[in-house]
């Protein structure tokens, strides 16, 4: 008997070592606890991880509800190839599918929660052959008004959104200013057309006096130091000498 038991254990060990027998398990993750204000929508987030490839046609998701008071567990939601919301019970027309199978998301939304929804919600996922594993639980508490932590969280979200918008505006304005500054510098760097500047000491062409140098020679009169033109002097002297010759002729005639 001991030999048979030992041989059976040896066979099982060999199969496990060879990979024929594998212990598969699926992991489900939920928030654990959450609050929702009466009359608002609540998202029950549930994600999962599977050791087997995700097959949209074989994944099965089940949501159930356990009330705070002792009572019977109630079906909330079922998914298999398509969503199946409840057709009766307190969750009738209140459940909306918000998951994504390929994204490994099995979340649902409860619309307009009521105080009767206080309790524990269980999320179970199966992805054959990965069908064994833990389940996820969410303890929902429906309140009249949001708690301080929820209000603080909401304020932080709003403040973060406003800060992000302001930062974006500052970046946009800075980019515009830099662009305008660059355009101005580019315009300044472009050389303006050069204007011809005239020498103020130069005479206008219409008023300028043209000076010509005579080709005749200049002579200096020793008596008064005046400069005179040699050609002028010769003509004058010739004129003076002319009458003298005439006078001589007249004298001869008279004789």
Q: What general outline do the C-alpha atoms trace?
A: elongated
Mean pLDDT: 74
Residues in β-strands, percent: 15-25%
**Mind telling me the C-alpha Rg?**
58 Å
What is the tally of beta strands?
A: 13
CATH C-level name of the domain at 22-145 = Mainly Beta
Q: What is the compact description of this entry?
A:
The chain contains three helices and 13 strands, in the order H-E-E-E-E-E-E-E-E-E-E-E-H-E-E-H. With 255 residues, the chain is an alpha+beta fold. Among the domains are: 22-145, Immunoglobulins (Immunoglobulin-like, Sandwich), CATH 2.60.40.10; 146-188.
Question: What do you see in this structure?
Answer:
Among the domains are: 22-145, Immunoglobulin-like (Sandwich); 146-188. Helices cover 33% and strands 24% of the residues. The chain has helices at 2-18, 148-189, 230-254; strands spanning 27-30, 32-37, 42-44, 46-49, 60-67, 74-80, 83-84, 95-97, 108-110, 119-126, 136-143, 218-220, 227-229. The protein has a 6-stranded mixed β-sheet with strand order 2-11-10-5-6-7, with no helix packed on it. Strands 3-9-8 form a 3-stranded antiparallel β-sheet, with no helix packed on it. A two-stranded antiparallel ribbon has the order 1-4.
Explain the layout of strands and helices.
Blueprint: H1 2-18, E1 27-30, E2 32-37, E3 42-44, E4 46-49, E5 60-67, E6 74-80, E7 83-84, E8 95-97, E9 108-110, E10 119-126, E11 136-143, H2 148-189, E12 218-220, E13 227-229, H3 230-254
Parallel strand pairs: 2-11
Antiparallel strand pairs: 1-4, 3-9, 5-6, 5-10, 6-7, 8-9, 10-11, 12-13
Keywords: Disulfide bond, Glycoprotein, Immunoglobulin domain, Membrane, Signal, Transmembrane, Transmembrane helix
Biased composition (Acidic residues): 237-255
Subcellular location: Membrane
């Amino acid at each position: 008997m001991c030999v048979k038991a030992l041989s059976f254990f040896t066979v099982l060990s060999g199969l496990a070592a060879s990979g024929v027998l594998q212990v598969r398990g699926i992991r489900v993750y939920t928030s654990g606890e959450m609050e929702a204000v009466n009359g608002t929508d609540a998202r029950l987030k549930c994600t999962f991880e599977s050791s087997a490839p995700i097959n949209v046609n074989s994944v099965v998701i089940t949501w159930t509800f356990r009330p705070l008071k002792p009572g019977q567990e109630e079906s909330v939601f079922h998914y298999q190839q398509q969503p199946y919301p409840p057709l009766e019970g307190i969750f009738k027309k209140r459940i909306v599918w918000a998951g994504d199978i390929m994204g490994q998301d099995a979340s649902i939304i409860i619309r307009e929660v009521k105080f009767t929804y206080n309790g524990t919600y269980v999320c179970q996922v199966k992805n054959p052959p990965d069908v064994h594993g833990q389940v996820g639980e969410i303890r929902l508490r429906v309140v009249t008004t949001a708690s301080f932590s929820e209000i603080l969280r909401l304020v932080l979200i709003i403040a973060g959104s406003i800060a992000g918008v302001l930062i974006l505006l500052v970046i946009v304005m800075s980019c515009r200013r830099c662009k305008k500054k660059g355009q101005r510098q580019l315009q300044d760097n472009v050389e303006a057309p050069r204007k011809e500047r005239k020498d103020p000491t130069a005479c206008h062409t219409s008023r300028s006096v043209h000076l010509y140098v005579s080709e005749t020679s200049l002579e200096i009169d020793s008596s008064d130091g005046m400069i005179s033109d040699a050609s002028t002097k010769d003509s004058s002297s010739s004129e003076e000498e002319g009458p003298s010759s005439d006078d001589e002729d007249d004298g001869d005639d008279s004789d």
